[in-house]
């Protein structure tokens, strides 16, 4: 497994061009079934250990119904660290963004429970005190994701829209961004994910996920990367201030984010 995680993945010029235009891409056969089966067991076990969500589904707000969210598992399990620090994944991230290398911002498991609700329309970078748009998230399903499980949905090319960037994940973001996207020409892409398929999306592209209408948990691991030369910017909201303290502790505004929690993963 470690060999695959460190092997380069071939990206065609057409794939890089597609990402640059649309700011998302789905790639087939990034990981094999053996690797995914191993990490599904490790990550699921760790999510169960660390999950603090105790409210029943019908008493949670929209955000709480969307998913169980467990952060920085690379610090909790050395086996999971091998996946999160994979040169294969980080190399894809670097090539798609067309940067010299990438650091980790943080990882997170996103487990949408059976009967879990929608993940509203949003742009991730609302939460991040980062100085440029050179950010990308690898969305790694640990099993096949059929449409009824709530795969990630993208508004292709919507990183060009600035309206809605000030909204956190909420009922408001779902409604306002949906209304904005309805009157634009950006294609709405929602497809199932085959086993081994991984998507990559930028921090400012708008995306969402449907409800999990099955009796099985939708198990996904994510890794957020940033340009290795990324600088910390002055936070613009409380979420960005919290992210600074949590994921970039010790970083200084206007300086490169070079902290023990943000090592260079590629090259």
TrEMBL record:
<dbReference type="Pfam" id="PF05721">
    <property type="entry name" value="PhyH"/>
</dbReference>
<dbReference type="InterPro" id="IPR008775">
    <property type="entry name" value="Phytyl_CoA_dOase-like"/>
</dbReference>
<dbReference type="GO" id="GO:0051213">
    <property type="term" value="F:dioxygenase activity"/>
</dbReference>
<keyword id="KW-0223">Dioxygenase</keyword>
<protein>
    <submittedName>
        <fullName>Phytanoyl-CoA dioxygenase family protein</fullName>
    </submittedName>
</protein>
<keyword id="KW-0560">Oxidoreductase</keyword>
């Amino acid at each position: 497994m470690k060999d695959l995680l460190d092997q380069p993945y071939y990206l065609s010029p057409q794939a890089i061009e597609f990402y640059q235009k649309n700011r998302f891409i789905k790639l087939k056969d990034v990981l094999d079934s053996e690797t995914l089966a191993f990490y599904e067991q490790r990550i699921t076990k760790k999510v169960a250990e660390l999950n603090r969500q105790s409210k029943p589904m019908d008493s949670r707000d929209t955000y709480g119904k969307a998913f169980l969210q467990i952060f920085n598992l690379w610090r909790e399990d050395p086996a999971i660290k091998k996946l999160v620090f994979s040169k294969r994944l980080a190399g894809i991230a670097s090539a798609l963004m067309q940067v010299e290398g990438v650091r980790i911002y943080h990882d997170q498991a996103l487990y949408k429970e059976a009967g879990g609700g929608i993940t509203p329309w949003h742009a991730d970078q609302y939460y991040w005190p980062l100085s440029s748009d050179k950010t990308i998230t690898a969305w790694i399903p640990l099993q096949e994701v059929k449409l009824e499980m709530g795969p990630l949905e993208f508004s292709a090319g919507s990183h060009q829209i600035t309206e809605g960037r000030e909204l956190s994940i909420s009922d408001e973001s779902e409604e306002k961004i949906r209304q904005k996207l309805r009157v634009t020409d950006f294609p709405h892409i929602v497809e199932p994910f085959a086993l081994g398929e991984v998507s990559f999306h930028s921090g400012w592209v708008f995306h969402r996920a449907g409800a999990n209408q099955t009796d099985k948990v939708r198990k996904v691991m994510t890794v957020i990367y940033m340009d290795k030369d990324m600088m910390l910017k002055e936070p613009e909201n409380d979420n960005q201030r919290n992210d600074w303290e949590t994921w970039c502790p010790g970083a200084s505004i206007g300086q490169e984010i070079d902290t023990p929690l943000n090592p260079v993963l590629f090259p």
